[in-house]
Every structure is written in C-alpha cells, then in structure tokens.
Amino acid sequence: MKRSTFLNRISLGTGGLLIIPAVSLVQSCSYRPTLRTTISASDSPLLDEIGETIIPTTDAVPGAKAANIGSYMVLMYEDCMTPEDQQLFVEGINELDQRASQTYGESFTTIEDVQKLELLYTIQNEAEAYYLTMEGLEKVPVHYFSLLKNLTISGYFSSKIGMMEARNYVPIPGKFESCIPYSKYDKPWAI
C-alpha cells in the first residue's frame, strides 16, 4: 500500500469519527418531547404554563400559575378522573407538547407567550370544529382541550387567589340586600 493511500484512509476515518459526535451534538440541541404515559407532579410546570396562558396574570389579579393550577390538575387527574378521561388528558398533553415542538422547536414551557397563545387558539378552534362534526350524536366524546380548559377554570376559581382576589369576597355573609349597585366592570361575587 502506498503511503499517500494510507494517509488518505486514515484521515477519512478520523474525520468520520469527528463527524459522528458533532451530528449527535446538533441533534441533542433540538427539543424532543417525552411521551407521557401518566401525569405526575413533575408535569406541574407544564400544566402551570398552560393554565397561565388560559388565565394570565394581569395588573389587577394574579393568574393561574400563581394559584398553582398545575398541582390542582395533577390532583384531579390522580383522584377524580375516570381511566378514559385520564388517557384523554395524557394524550392531549402529549399532543400539545408535540405540536409546540413541531411548530416552534421547543417545549411549550420555553416558547414565547405569544406563541403559547397562538398554539392554544389553534387547538381551541380545532376543538370547536370537532364539536361541530359531532353535532347530533347523543353522547359526544370530550375534546382534550375542553377538559384542560375546564380544569383550569374550576381550579383557578376554587383557589384562594380566584376566590379572594379575582372576585369580590365577603368572608361572613351579612344581611340580605336585594338591590346593590353593580356595574359591568365590577368583579363577580364569590360564592
């Protein structure tokens, strides 16, 4: 074998050994969502971000994240949902994170707020279209986004923040007043 042929083969082999780690490094930089089989406390940050996008923090009132909506959803998932609803919820969370990854290349928790809102609007429109196609059926299967949105709303408004800061709260009921002044800009009363 000639010396030049030997050196060419060695350099190609060495170059190939350097390219393989570089390719895996580049692949590791892109986000790949994990496919969940269940929901646990480790998913609370993702659920908090989804809830915060649905009920955001404003100047006047803290949002769903401040109410620990993720922990509430995990609790409801573990203790109150039927196995069918649990499966729907897990599949929905997987789909949402997968779509964030496909559309923006990142997890739902790391994309910009505008992107989160855009993604949830798209999914909400799909849910509305889904319900229109199911019109006329006696029992319509729930869309995962409806389940997610209902959990966010019920969890937020049953939390301390939702009851005491987002609504008018009277800790001890007083006398009955049949007519009280109320404008459309007032907070609703907590029950």
What general outline do the C-alpha atoms trace? elongated
String of helices and strands: HHHHHHH
- Low-confidence runs of at least 5 consecutive residues: 23-28
Give the count of helical stretches: 7
Average pLDDT, to the nearest integer?
A: 85
Q: How many extended strands?
A: 0
Strand content: under 5%
Number of domains: 1
Largest sheet: none
Structural class computed from helices and strand pairing: mainly alpha
Helix content: 55-70%
The Rg value, from CA coordinates, equals: 25 Å
Q: What distance lies between the first and last C-alpha atoms, to the nearest angstrom?
A: 90 Å
Descriptive notes:
It is elongated, with a radius of gyration of 25 Å. It contains seven helices and no strands. The chain has one domain. It starts with a helix and ends in a 27-residue tail after the last helix. It has 191 residues and is an all-alpha fold. This is Gluconate 2-dehydrogenase subunit 3. InterPro entries: Gluconate_2DH_su3.
